[in-house]
Design a protein that fits this description.
The chain is mostly beta strands. The protein has a single domain, classed as Lipocalin. The protein is built from one helix and seven strands, in the order βββββββα. Strands 1, 2, 3, 4, 5, 6 and 7 form a seven-stranded antiparallel beta sheet that branches. The two termini are 26 Å apart.
Length: 99
């Protein structure tokens, strides 16, 4: 997993950044009556630095370079960041004040 630092947007205590997760072995999940196979997930993560929460606002699933599912808007709800987690580390980085 890694965050694309070129996509960081700041608005008050809110930070938005795209985070990409890549797996060498494609994953398959049942989506309704279809099977969705993907090896990459790219999510727009929204951090509230004041509340120390995170949610995913949009997500894309890819197989190679092909988008197999695009969710431009999710129903995700903000959740508290788990201490010492990957996303807590990202939040600490993006929530720092710029020099």
């Amino acid at each position: 997993m890694y965050m694309d630092t070129t996509t960081i947007l700041r608005d008050g205590s809110i930070r938005k950044v795209w985070v990409k997760s890549f797996d060498l072995d494609p994953k398959s999940v049942l989506a309704g009556k279809d099977t969705l196979t993907f090896d990459t997930v790219i999510g727009l993560n929204v951090f509230d630095c004041a509340k120390k929460t995170r949610m995913v606002a949009a997500v894309q699933y890819l197989l190679g370079d092909v988008v197999v599912l695009d969710l431009p808007e999710t129903q995700d709800k903000s959740e508290p960041l788990k201490p010492k987690s990957f996303f807590a580390a990202i939040a600490a980085d993006v929530c720092r004040e710029s020099p």
